[in-house]
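Action item from last week, closing it out:
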Amino acid sequence: MRISYLASEAVPWPPRKGELLPRHDEPVGIEKKLRGYCLALDHKDGGSKANGFLTMLGIDLTAIGYLDRHIRIGITDNPISEVRQKKAEAFDCAVYIRIPGIGRYSHRSAWVLTVWQLDTPGSQPRFITAIPRGRKKR
């Protein structure tokens, strides 16, 4: 059983593996990070991710809406796979969620690892990055 917490509910801290992302209905920064980093082929650090999305899944900047939509759907359906607290005494933590079955074409898909920043209990999840992994040919 997955536990889901919405904005109006108290959230245990830190979130736990197997639960849904707290406030998954209110993520921030997805399109901005996809456009400027994850799908930007010319970005110094994000270019390799952009190349992975393009070659593995056929996803580039013209498909930003597709990827944004699937990430938003994916965080409502898929549980947290890992939680990393930055410091033992700090509130902020990084939350990892694996979203399966993303791909623009029927003959190939992959799961995508998404990373989210949670600054404090009850804060909106801020999108950090997405990394294509585990390509499957159909």
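Closing note: Residues 30-137 form one domain.
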